[in-house]
Design brief:
Elements: E1 5-11, H1 15-26, E2 30-37, H2 44-58, E3 64-66, H3 80-83, H4 107-117, E4 122-126, H5 131-139, H6 141-144, E5 149-153, H7 168-172, H8 174-181, E6 187-190, H9 192-195, E7 199-200, H10 202-209, H11 214-227, E8 238-239, H12 243-250, E9 255-260, E10 262-264, E11 275-277, E12 289-295, H13 297-311
Helix pairs in contact: 1-12, 1-13, 4-5, 5-8, 10-11
The protein binds alpha-D-ribofuranose (RIB) and calcium ion.
Alpha-D-ribofuranose binds next to α1 and α7.
């Protein structure tokens, strides 16, 4: 891992996207130069509003660019049936409103301009549907070819979460995912198989609830509700999705990968949006993805909590 990385985040906040941002702000080696927002957990106007409110709450000045409101093909899919109208629930105080506005409403152009102006190759963290990235590739494949790698939360080597076969981010725009996975840009995939090793428990929530201050209190309410997604009393641990990509940035030695050919199913009646991972390389196709297969889970969760508590100290 180089001494410093230039990082762009493409996201669909979503509370786990917010957690990824909090960790990213603690990575001193990462120069976070911009952010693009996509429809996903909720429609674009909601994910954008969430993003601007998050930046207001933490006093962040990272440029925020609005991107795609619709998938490349097919109907819009959100996770509001699980996460509620705002795309994330809280058991406490809601994110305060903001008068902030997006820096631009053309995320793909902003991303391309950043790549063109940057001396350092960009690392793109993608924690939502891949529509914005597919849009940028379609507009200027040569410039996107300068990206160091795309590190994404999405897909799975086995069962899905939004359908039996598909993980939400890929299912929400499978054609965009197919275009990104076929782009030749180096990809590092944190799928459900990996995220299910990073389990958030009531104990983790309690540690954040014990923190002083209004900002920590606001995050604690959303963390509490997030942890209860699988079971109302929170007894069933909840996987950490989006923070996994930042945990890898911070502690790469805690993760093991397998170079694998991965294709996106676009036709299947029951399997559309599935990441078809040829783990035994039966097809002989090129290994286009580094799939995260194993985490040192205890150490990764300790690292998560250290970074999160650090991020929520009043001084930060
Ligand atoms: O499947 C989990 C992913 O879908 C996460 O990125 C979550 O924020 C939603 O976007
Ligand atoms: Ca997300």
């Amino acid at each position: 891992m180089p001494a410093e990385l230039t990082v762009w985040l493409d996201c669909d906040p979503g509370f786990d996207d917010w957690l990824a941002m909090l960790l990213l702000k603690q990575c001193r080696f990462a120069r976070w130069v911009g952010m693009s927002v996509v429809a996903g957990n909720a429609p674009l106007e909601v994910t954008l509003d969430n993003t601007l409110r998050i930046c207001e709450l933490h006093g962040w000045s990272v440029p925020v660019h609005a991107g795609s409101a619709q998938p490349l093909q097919g109907a819009q899919e959100t996770a509001q049936n699980i996460l509620g109208g705002q795309g994330m629930r809280t058991s406490g105080a809601k994110l305060p409103p903001t008068t902030r506005r997006a820096t631009s409403r053309d995320a793909a152009s902003a991303l391309l301009a950043q790549i063109q102006s940057s001396d350092e190759p960009l690392v793109i963290l993608a924690t939502g549907p891949l529509t914005n990235l597919a849009d940028a590739i379609a507009r200027d494949r040569l410039t996107m070819g300068r990206v160091r790698e795309i590190v994404l939360m999405g897909g799975s080597i086995d069962r899905g979460n939004h359908t039996p076969a598909a993980e939400f981010n890929v299912f929400a725009d499978p054609l965009a995912a197919a275009q990104v996975f076929a782009s030749g840009i180096p990809l590092r995939m944190f799928g459900l198989n990996l995220c299910r090793q990073l389990l958030l428990t009531r104990e983790h929530v309690g540690a954040v609830q014990a923190l002083p201050g209004q900002i920590a209190g606001c995050v604690a309410g959303y963390l509490d509700a997030y942890q209860r997604i699988r079971s109302v009393d929170g007894r069933e641990p909840m996987p950490l999705y989006d923070p996994a990509v930042v945990l890898w940035l911070a502690r790469p030695e805690l993760f093991e990968f397998q170079a694998t050919p991965v294709d996106i199913e676009l036709q299947g009646q029951f399997t559309r949006g599935m990441t078809v991972c040829d783990l035994r390389n039966r097809t002989g196709r090129p290994c286009n993805v580094q799939i995260a297969m194993k985490a040192s889970a205890d150490e990764a969760m300790q690292a998560f909590m250290r970074l999160l508590l650090q991020a929520l100290e009043p001084a930060n």
